[in-house]
């Protein structure tokens, strides 16, 4: 959006604030594109993101700017431990990185699900992801433990895979104030 300056001489551009909301089926293809463009994520077929947006929409969020999906968090509540939110994938479009958006989405998802514990798995060579979850744990004043999860023999031997560690963050202060990043979350909006 362009707005005139006080002098009225030159317009300034004000970036649109991200809208954080639960995904719907129409978002699945855009979520797949964000995942594909992240390069780092294991890319699932588009069908997986569309199905996820249908069946796990209440435990997932997308961030939307000007009608486009620019980030997402996919998660589910573990059937045998339903107070635990397992975060499957997090991605933010390059144009929106470094502004606290991934942290805002995680905070919003924790608040909406009321989860007591958050789990995720991260490869050792992903410092951005590690820092994202370390900062999340700190904001929630929660304990953050890291352990192994799956072993080599769980994976097909003809596939190249990187070991991931299980990060468990608990207990969550789900009603705590949300992630604060000046100039960003002040504008962030959310609705369901
Ligand atoms: C990981 C990712 C989601 C972070 O998104 P983002 O919106 O830029 O993250 P945020 O701005 O909320 O930053 C969260 C924290 O991580 C830190 N961080 C972000 N990018 C970083 C990087 N490249 N290296 C180190 N730390 C980084 C931030 O400084 C911040 O820490 P702070 O709160 O102490 O300042 C984004 O880089 C991405 O989409 N990467 C590709 C996909 C991926 O690896 N997903 C995670 C595995 S599922």
From TrEMBL:
Pathway: Amine and polyamine biosynthesis; ectoine biosynthesis; L-ectoine from L-aspartate 4-semialdehyde: step 2/3. InterPro entries: Acyl_CoA_acyltransferase, Ectoine_EctA, GNAT_dom. The keyword Acyltransferase applies. Residues 1-23, 171-192 are annotated as: Disordered. Transmembrane segments: none annotated. One of its GO terms (molecular function) is diaminobutyrate acetyltransferase activity. Keywords: Acyltransferase, Transferase. One of its GO terms (biological process) is ectoine biosynthetic process. It is an enzyme of class 2 (transferase). Residues 18-173 form the N-acetyltransferase domain. CDD domains: NAT_SF (cd04301). Its EC number is 2.3.1.178. The keyword Metal-binding does not apply. Residues 1-15 have a biased composition (Polar residues). Pfam families: Acetyltransf_1. Belongs to the acetyltransferase family. EctA subfamily. This is L-2,4-diaminobutyric acid acetyltransferase. The lineage of its organism: Bacteria, Bacillati, Actinomycetota, Actinomycetes, Micrococcales. The gene is ectA.
């Amino acid at each position: 959006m362009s707005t005139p300056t006080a002098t009225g001489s030159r317009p300034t551009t004000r970036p649109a604030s991200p809208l954080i909301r639960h995904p719907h089926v129409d978002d699945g293809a855009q979520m797949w594109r964000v995942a594909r463009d992240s390069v780092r994520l294991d890319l699932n077929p588009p069908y997986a993101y569309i199905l996820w947006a249908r069946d796990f929409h209440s435990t997932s969020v997308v961030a939307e700017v000007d009608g486009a999906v620019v980030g997402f968090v996919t998660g589910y509540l573990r059937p045998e431990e339903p107070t635990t939110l397992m975060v499957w994938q997090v991605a933010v479009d390059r144009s929106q990185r470094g502004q606290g958006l991934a942290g805002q989405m995680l905070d919003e998802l924790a608040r909406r699900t009321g989860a007591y514990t958050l789990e995720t798995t991260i490869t050792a060579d992903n410092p951005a992801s590690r820092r994202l979850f370390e900062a999340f744990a700190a904001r929630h004043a929660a304990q953050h433990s890291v352990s192994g999860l799956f072993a080599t023999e769980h994976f097909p031997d003809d596939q190249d895979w990187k070991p991931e560690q299980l990060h468990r963050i608990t207990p969550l202060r789900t009603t705590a104030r949300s992630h604060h990043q000046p100039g960003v979350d002040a504008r962030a909006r959310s609705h369901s």
